[in-house]
Write a structure and sequence with these properties.
Rossmann fold; 4 helices; 26% helix; disordered N terminus
């Protein structure tokens, strides 16, 4: 269920690891990268997992970082595609530009896309000056242990 509660933090390895539940050794796949993404956030995520982000197909990734903008197409399709390499217990971090930034995605569009994809979403977390992320998960019945 979507909430209007928002959190903003200074991005650093500790903060990102805590907010996103990341730990060294986890595998995070990155989708939707372009030259407008937040490189400081990417670096903080890589520091938190002590590895590079992967962009190729890898079985059983722990999380997917999906950068998404308003003109990237259908968010529901992108979310379904992001499940391809995701482990049963994994989740997607949907990163979208903040309100007023180029490519901002309306909250209603995100909510509709998540519902259409058969998933559930959390409130946005502001992890940079220009982007926020939302954790998107499979329904409990679709998750493994």
């Amino acid at each position: 269920m979507y909430s209007n509660r928002k959190v903003f933090v200074t991005v650093g390895t500790t903060e990102v690891a805590t907010l996103l539940g990341l730990k060294p050794g986890q595998v995070v796949q990155e989708l939707g990268w372009d030259d407008d993404v937040d490189e400081v956030l990417r670096d903080a995520i890589m520091d938190a997992i002590d590895a590079d982000l992967v962009d190729e197909a890898v079985d059983g990734v722990d999380a997917v970082l999906l950068w998404w903008r308003a003109d990237d197409g259908d968010v529901a399709d992108a979310l379904v595609d992001s499940l391809t390499d995701l482990s049963k217990s994994g989740h997607v971090w949907l990163a979208t530009p903040k309100v007023g930034r180029p490519g901002h995605v309306d909250a209603a569009d995100i909510s509709e896309g998540v519902t259409t994809a058969g998933m559930a979403v959390t409130a946005p977390v502001g992890v940079s000056q220009t982007w926020h992320v939302q954790k998107v998960v499979r329904p409990k019945a679709g998750r493994g242990r």
